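ok new one. same drill as before - structure tokens go in, u give me an amino acid for every spot. 174 of them this time. try not to just spam alanines like last time pls lmao
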């Protein structure tokens, strides 16, 4: 038995690019969760991952290199333009990112006091560890979100991140 605290977050287990992650992915009770799981299984024909909703700050981190030579090239925080409520970096948000989110880079975060050097180091270490554990080669983009206690949590890794020069996260970070 696993004890998870509401709100919970549900998403398809084997999708990428936020497929199946919607503004409605946060569930506050069993009825919402059961309905969402049924809908996701119907739409995606695969198991559904259920986890505690991570309500803290969201970061995406760029990593370059291999093994012990890998290094973090930078990170950015993903913030909703309209604060309030439970922010989900959903498919809807990503499709309208210019109007929905603001990206704050490492130097901006430090200058504004929005992240402490210790928290920044913890986020970087977690991203680098994920890159190494998954044996990523050359580059990856690691998504990290803080929990309700402010602790960084690994969310996902993309070992083949987009490289579109206008809107790919890794390119923006670099």
């Amino acid at each position: 038995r696993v004890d998870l605290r509401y709100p919970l977050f549900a998403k398809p287990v084997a999708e990428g690019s936020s497929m199946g992650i919607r503004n409605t992915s946060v569930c506050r009770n069993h009825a919402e969760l059961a309905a969402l799981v049924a809908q996701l299984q119907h739409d995606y024909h695969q198991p559904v991952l259920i986890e505690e909703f991570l309500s803290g700050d969201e970061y995406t981190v760029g990593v370059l290199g291999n093994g012990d030579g890998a290094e973090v090239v930078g990170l950015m925080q993903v913030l909703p333009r309209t604060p309030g409520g439970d922010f989900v970096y959903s498919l809807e948000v990503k499709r309208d990112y210019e109007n929905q989110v603001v990206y704050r880079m490492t130097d901006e975060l430090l200058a504004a006091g929005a992240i402490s050097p210790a928290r920044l180091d913890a986020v970087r270490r977690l991203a680098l560890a994920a890159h190494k554990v998954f044996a990523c080669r050359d580059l990856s983009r690691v998504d990290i979100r803080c929990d309700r206690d402010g602790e960084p949590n690994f969310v996902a890794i993309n070992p083949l991140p987009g490289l579109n020069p206008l809107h790919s996260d890794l390119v923006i970070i670099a």
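The mean pLDDT is 93. and btw Residues 117-133 form the longest helix (17 residues).
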